[in-house]
Design goal:
The protein is an alpha+beta fold. It folds into two domains: 17-131, no CATH class; 139-253, no CATH class. The chain is built from ten helices and seven strands. It has helices spanning 44-51, 65-73, 96-108, 112-133, 140-170, 177-196, 200-207, 212-215, 218-238, 242-253; strands at 3-6, 9-12, 17-25, 28-34, 40-43, 80-84, 87-95. The protein starts with a strand and ends in a 7-residue tail after the last helix.
């Protein structure tokens, strides 16, 4: 550490530290960093904590995360160490561009949190680019709210898929091949009928789109998310059959179909 002498007084130069703030994005919260050159970054420990929220997909080992990320990104993975205002101990950090690249690669490996972040990033960037092109000045808060609902709903839907998978494993001897083949589509369609009064095919025809959730409003995504969250609880905690769970969730939430 460098020191500076003024006569008999010696002063130590304080080490530069990254500023920490809570970043809220895509329904997730994590500690973000602003480095001394005013660029943004995230600590490797925070990346690991985020990825560990998906208990079923690829998750890096906490002690070897940097090595695993290096194998995945190669020369594009350039971490460096820095202390933060919260701790004098230096940690490995990566810039947000590298973080984005890492999420894309880990999404391919099947981590659902990484998939959600990667997809939300692409959607947000494209929407903002289109709004600039068409001079549509939409507030950043509106983007944030919609993306949080979009991604949180996507993660919840996958949780519903996991709940259905567990139900099938537990009751495999009593279920037909056709049931196992179509239960995911049937459950999704039942959610759509509760919220919109129509199945996916009719919604796509009416809205003239291929990906329904990209065409939904913040309110509509919230309704979908509420039904699926409750359905998961009914399956996991009370042993409901998935279609019955979705129907019961709609009844308990007293949802009236949205017309548009």
């Amino acid at each position: 550490m460098k020191t500076f002498s003024f006569g008999k007084c010696t002063m130590k130069k304080k080490p530069l530290k990254a500023v920490v703030a809570i970043v809220r994005y895509a329904g997730l919260e994590f500690e973000g960093l602003r480095l001394t050159d005013s660029t943004y970054a995230i600590g490797i420990p925070q990346v690991v904590d985020l990825l560990e929220r998906d208990i079923n997909g690829f998750r890096p080992h906490k002690n070897y995360a940097s090595q695993e990320f290096k194998r995945i990104l190669g020369k594009r993975f350039r971490p460096h160490k820095i202390a933060t205002e919260l701790d004098n101990a230096r940690i490995n950090v990566i810039g947000i561009e590298t973080f984005g690249l890492l999420m894309i690669q880990l999404a391919i490996k099947g981590n659902q949190v990484a998939q959600a972040i990667a997809e939300a990033s692409v959607t947000t960037t494209l929407e903002m680019a289109y709004d600039l092109a068409f001079q549509n000045e939409q507030k950043l808060e509106e983007y944030q709210a919609r993306q949080e609902a979009r991604v949180q709903g996507k993660l919840t839907r996958r949780t519903l898929t996991d709940a259905i998978q567990d139900y099938i494993k537990t009751n495999a001897d009593n279920l037909s091949d056709n049931y196992e083949r179509f239960i995911y589509t049937n459950a999704s369609d039942r959610v759509n009928k509760i919220v919109f009064g129509r199945n996916a095919k009719k919604l796509r025809e009416s809205w003239k789109c291929t990906e329904l959730r990209d065409a939904m409003t913040f309110e509509e995504l919230s309704y979908i998310d509420s039904v699926e969250r409750l359905a998961v609880r009914l399956i996991d905690e009370l042993g409901y059959e998935p279609l019955s769970a979705v129907k019961e969730a709609g009844n308990r939430l007293l949802i009236k179909p949205i017309e548009r």
